[in-house]
Amino acid sequence: MTALTLSTSSAATVRADAVVVGVAKGAKGVVVAPGAEAVDKAFGGKLAGVLETLGASGAEGEVTKLPAADGLKTPVVLAVGLGDAPAKGDGYAHEALRRAAGSAARALAGSKKAGFALPVEDAEAAAAVGEGALLGAYAFTAFRSNGAGNGKNGKKNDAKSAPLAEVAILGGKPRDKEFKAATERAQALAAEINRARDLINTPSNALDPKSFAAEAQAAAKEFGLKVEVLDEKALKKGGYGGLLGVGQGSEAPPRLVRIAHTHPKADKTLALVGKGITYDSGGISLKPAGHNETMKCDMSGAAAVFAAVVTAARLGLEVNVTGWLALAENMPSGSATRPGDVLTMYSGKTVEVLNTDAEGRLVLADALTRASEEEPDAIVDVATLTGAMVLALGHRHFGIMANDDAFRTSIHEIAEEVGEQSWPMPMPEHLRKGMDSPVADIANMGERMGGGLVAGLFLKEFIGEGIPWAHLDIAGPAFHEGSPWGYTPKGGTGSAVRTLVRLAERTAAGDLG
């Protein structure tokens, strides 16, 4: 992974392959952001004018490279847009710094070291720059042979596309406790988000429920976590009808993983539940052509939960965080659950399966009931649950539903604080009637319109009484199919990890919301 350091060097004296400076859109043109003063001086105070001549505008994520002027120790200056310049007296938003650093890091692939001279007024701003750069430098290369497809120059070309090796935050204070702690947190968080991305990007023939569980066991050993894996025999003995029903059509049997960070001083427990469908064909209700190709990402919720629990352990948070990974592969076969079948869930409730492609709510229901038995102070589930949520909110926002308005508001505020776009959604009680079944306690489908809300109402049925609960439907932002932007890569994004980690930090501080 890309190294992150705090440097006392100035933008003029840092020895690196490039120095990164920020520029913004001002009322009269390009404005050079704080941190770039030494570079601007080397250009005779005309850096903004030179950049405008090259077509730069300061727009968010815009990257402009130019040869360094005399007096600078780096051969290249990279100017990255921060968007609109803030009002006088205001600083740059942390999310603007994250996105700019991510764009710059990606543009510097193949470089050994870059000095980031972006505005770092305080430790949190430095952490935002570090976090964005580490996430922007991410690349998934596990399945690329060395030089494949690049002919005689394959190895050389691979080196040019390798992630930026080191990010040095200029203006940082390596001996300052706050700066040091903030950047160490950024390193741990980015490492675990990238772990989640790796899992999401891994093809389904290399990641099934059993191998995903093995990843959790390995991490538990490395970071001192408690882990328990229920295999198909244990699931059958325990009556986990949702997990078994979804997984019975696959040769790769389901798993339920409990992975927990505990702290001796903790007096609060947060339960996180993740949907982990390692491949979703839709089952007998087969997905149409064009909707199968990215379904390796249907375990993004479990990946986010896994990453959040490990991050809590790495940061030593004074809160107990228990992750539940509901893992299954949804396949059509002679043994698969059929539309019209009735499953008896772990809770004892019966569910008529009207659509086998509404499988995520079935595995989550079992895990939510099991998590409720431990009576945590709150439960949050994360899932790529419904296409309806993508239709409602697009590809960059996740929806938030909850059985407690204050808790939903708190989650929304946390998500916005850490730079994850989200929106609170309702759970209208009138939609519950659509899931009434003539043969079972409830059906797994209801009204088509408002399908994302219907899914939330279904999950609510499996939450223990009196436990605050929130549901994050990350179907939109979990997997990015377009061109990279900011610190968001093509493929798995690690959506919701930052929100879950900040929630754990707030819970540790006594502010559960």
From TrEMBL:
Domain of life, source organism: Bacteria
Residue numbers binding Mn(2+) 2: K275, D280, D298, E359
InterPro entries: Leucine_aapep/pepB, Macro_dom-like, Peptidase_M17_C, Peptidase_M17_leu_NH2_pept, Peptidase_M17_N
Residues that bind Mn(2+) 1: D280, D357, E359
EC numbers: 3.4.11.1, 3.4.11.10
Essential cofactor(s): Mn(2+)
Active site, renumbered: K287, R361
Catalytic activity from the UniProt record: Release of an N-terminal amino acid, Xaa-|-Yaa-, in which Xaa is preferably Leu, but may be other amino acids including Pro although not Arg or Lys, and Yaa may be Pro. Amino acid amides and methyl esters are also readily hydrolyzed, but rates on arylamides are exceedingly low; Release of an N-terminal amino acid, preferentially leucine, but not glutamic or aspartic acids
Cofactor annotation remark: Binds 2 manganese ions per subunit.
Ranges where the Cytosol aminopeptidase domain occurs: 355-362
GO molecular function, one term: aminopeptidase activity
UniProtKB keywords: Aminopeptidase, Cytoplasm, Hydrolase, Manganese, Metal-binding, Protease
Cell compartments where the protein resides: Cytoplasm
HAMAP family in alphabetical order: Cytosol_peptidase_M17 (MF_00181)
Name listed for the protein in its UniProt record: Probable cytosol aminopeptidase
Lineage: Bacteria, Bacillati, Actinomycetota, Actinomycetes, Kitasatosporales
Protein's gene: pepA
